[in-house]
Design brief:
Largest sheet: 5 strands, mixed
Mean pLDDT: 91
Shape: globular
Strand content: 5-15%
Radius of gyration: 25 Å
Low-confidence stretches: 247-256
Order of helices and strands: EEEHEHEHHHHHHHHEEHHH
Structural class: alpha/beta
Number of strands: 7
Length: 327
């Protein structure tokens, strides 16, 4: 068995291949091009390769997997805790990854199946456009305040409201509306695609039996969790969502602080959003009752986070047992 470490950069990679005993078989700095990566690793059998998780990891992961390598995605924060060095170079980093891999000490990150990755990209694009649309609305409202104008109805972003905004003939608002219209069309198209693709999964259909979770939010939750069986307990899923409190222990004193906010920010965000809808549409559910009990002692936002964790607990068991929501 051979073990490789790959320190990945935008334009180049530092690569090293070692035996189980740490003997260097091959080492080079190569361009981050598909052909060069393939040429470097070609002819090497029984190869395990490790590199750090980053925003562009899929490109390298798919190339190496196509070559027949066993690919491991290193968790950057945990890897640094184990192997932080005063001497930090690309050669050192690649060797550290190979050493941790051959010693079976490499902290790894989960790599979802390609279908789940595509689902993630789809819903995250919808999130981005939704937030961008909100920014455009805020800019338009700011322009209205500058002119001391207010739409006479409930919202300026209905058909009648848009017509009213156009009628003002304010250049800045006209510019924002052109972009807003384009973004809105793309959001509508993406929502149709999310509905079409999302309902192909039994797990998403199960999630939509929870009041407050529609196809879009269910798709986002499922794409972020991936294979539920990778979580050995509900506590590990809570940790992945960043919904567990920080703990500081010294002697006999224990202090529980705010939630860690580590892991998937998208999962944490959609769970809190879903809770706000759930408590309105399911007033008699155990999750809603739990939220109201917390709210008597805690601020509303803290109660919402606690209820989101309770919702995630229900989701864990629903996906594990392939069961619908039972209130």
């Amino acid at each position: 068995m051979l073990y490789a470490g790959l320190d990945v950069h935008k334009n180049f990679c530092q690569a090293i291949v070692m035996t189980k005993d740490g003997e260097i078989v091959k080492e080079a700095r190569i361009r981050s091009e598909k052909d060069e990566i393939k040429n470097f690793f070609s002819g090497l059998k029984n190869l395990k390769v490790a590199f750090e998780a980053s925003g562009g990891y899929e490109y390298f992961y798919d190339i190496l997997e196509d070559l027949g390598c066993d690919v491991y995605l290193s968790n950057p924060s945990k890897t640094r805790l184990i192997a932080e060095s005063r001497v930090k170079t690309d050669k050192v980093d690649s060797k550290v990854l190979a050493d941790l891999l051959r010693s079976n000490l490499l902290p790894t990150s989960y790599v979802p199946h390609v279908e789940i990755r595509e689902l993630r990209h789809l819903v995250r694009r919808r999130i981005f456009l939704g937030r961008y649309r909100a920014k455009l609305k805020n800019h338009i409202h700011a322009e209205l305040r500058l002119k001391h104008l207010a739409f006479p109805g409930s919202t300026a972003f209905t058909k009648d409201g848009i017509d009213w905004l156009h009628g003002l003939r304010i250049p800045a608002i006209e510019s924002y509306l052109i972009i807003y219209d384009s973004v809105q069309r793309e959001i509508t198209s993406l929502e149709r695609e999310v509905t079409r693709v999302g309902m192909e999964y039994e797990e998403i259909r199960l999630l939509t039996t929870i009041p407050g979770i529609a196809v879009y939010s269910g798709t986002l939750i499922f794409s972020e969790i991936g294979d539920i069986n990778r979580f050995g307990s509900e506590e590990k899923l809570f940790s992945y969502a960043g919904l567990i409190p920080r703990v500081h222990q010294s002697g006999d004193n224990n202090y529980h602080g705010r939630i860690t906010k580590e892991g998937s920010k998208y999962l944490r965000w959609i769970l809190v959003e879903a809770i706000r809808v759930h408590i309105r549409h399911a007033p008699d559910s155990r999750i809603t009752e739990y939220y109201h009990r917390l709210k008597k002692k805690k601020p509303g936002n803290v109660a919402a986070i606690g209820a989101a964790r309770k919702l995630l607990q229900a989701i864990y068991h629903m996906l594990k047992n392939k069961d619908e929501f039972r209130g």
